[in-house]
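Quarterly update from the structural biology core.
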Amino acid sequence: MDLIVLGAVLWDLFPDEKLIGGAPFNVAAHATRLGMRTAFVSAVGADNLGAQALARAAQLGLSTQYIRTVQDRPTGTVRVFLKDGQPDYDIIRPAAYDCPDLNAADLRRLAETAPQWLYFGTLEQLSPEAMKVLARLLTAIPAARRFYDLNLRKNSYRSELVERLLNDATILKINESEAAAIAEMLDMHGVDCESFCNAVATRFDLECVCITRGQRGCAIWRHDLFVESPGCSVALADAVGAGDAFSAALMHGLTASWDLRRVAAFANRLGALVASRRGAVPQWTLEDIMERKEA
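Predicted structure, tokenized:
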């Protein structure tokens, strides 16, 4: 196993259509398409949307083995509002994804695959059930690199939760607004990007800190090496899922032990490709990624 992803699968409700989504689901789908062997841990409701989510996961090549079906919560949904292609979200809870579960046999089976990565975010960890599953996974697979994709959503995080999850992480991926939020939480003001990454990495013993900058690319700090990579020029369809595709590409490149500049450029290209197409997990191929040019 290359990757275990814990978190939400839900439906993004646009004004004119619904599309499968949830940052962890998107990461799992994109990582699978990149060739990473991926286990996705989540839950859906015993409803029509849940059945559709399971079917869509299978279509995307994801195993549904660890996606639980719960009776007392609806399948997750989020209302998505776009302004100039950039999304805002109205998260509807309670939701089934707050109730994942892994029994002892599941944990043993996953641990035996010696996964290289464990991915988690913030939204789901507001749920005690999800937090319990994360704690069990952290114990069961201590050698896995722990990818924390901050993904702060309005009214869906607490500072103390973020700090706790930072202490569990080895890789941190954030966007610029989230970097500002962390700087505020940690009383870290007036420092440049490299110094910020270095300070956060030192404080939380992180291997890598990545800050995405949308069409302006990204900045990555890893083991005292800092690189800034320009973005790719695309016609923006919507940015939903672009950061999740970036996360999958970042893990893919780090797994392959690529040069950090190559990792950054590859992740930028996949993020831009997804932003140029409708929905969080549009169809794409490796050839599509390699055709992208830096701005």
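The chain has a mean pLDDT of 93.
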